[in-house]
Structures are given as C-alpha cells and as structure tokens.
Amino acid sequence: MMFQTQINDRAISDNKIARVSELVNRLNAASFFSMLQFNYQNRIIKSVLVYRIGHQELISENFRFYYFKLLRSRIVKKAFMRVIDNDEEPALVALDSTRF
Asked: Is 22 helix (H, G, I), strand (E, B) or coil?
C-alpha cells in the first residue's frame, strides 16, 4: 500500500533546484523514513511511504502510524516555502524542521 502526497503547489524554478534538492536530502537524512522525493523533471516534491502488507491482514496500528506520518510530512511544506520564497539557507531550515 502506498501513501503519497505532493508537498509543493507549483513547479520549482531553475534557480531554486539546487537549494530545494539540498533541503530534501537534509530532511531525509534527519528523518526515520526517507519519504521525501524530488522529481527533477516535473520539479515537484512528494512525500511517499510504502506500507508492505504481503499476505498478512492489515494491522490497524501500523496503518495509522503510516497514515499520520504522511499527514505530518505536509508540515515540511513550510520549510520548502522558506527556501523557495524567502531564500533561506537549506541547512538552517533543515535544523529548524527536523521535528516532523
């Protein structure tokens, strides 16, 4: 089962790609799950989590954990807007945002 959400509302401009990529890498390194993905072709950031069920029954606690982890990942949108709109340093923004 895949949980997925788009983080940014608009395509990221050419001059912001390197900074956004750095922030994605820093946030992924700081989180338990590396769930942020930056699509360079479409210039969008997604949060993707895969919950492997296999042949088991769905465990409601695990499902809830993954679902709420994905919802909480939307919080990082503010971090990306700080880098994109306010030209803040990705390293400093990542330090402030590692609580997601």
From this structure: helix
CA distance 99 to 31: 8
Q: Find the helix or strand (DSSP H, E) in which 21 lies.
A: helix 17-30
Which tens digit of pLDDT belongs to each residue from 43-67? 999 988 887 777 878 788 888 887 8
Identify the bridge partners of residue 38 per DSSP, sorted by sequence position. Answer: 45
| Listed residue (20, 4, 22) closest to 69, CA to CA | 4
- The reported pTM is 0.81
User: Does residue 20 contact residue 26 with C-beta atoms inside 8 Å?
Assistant: no
Contact assessment for residue 50 and residue 1, using Cβ atoms and an 8 Å cutoff = yes
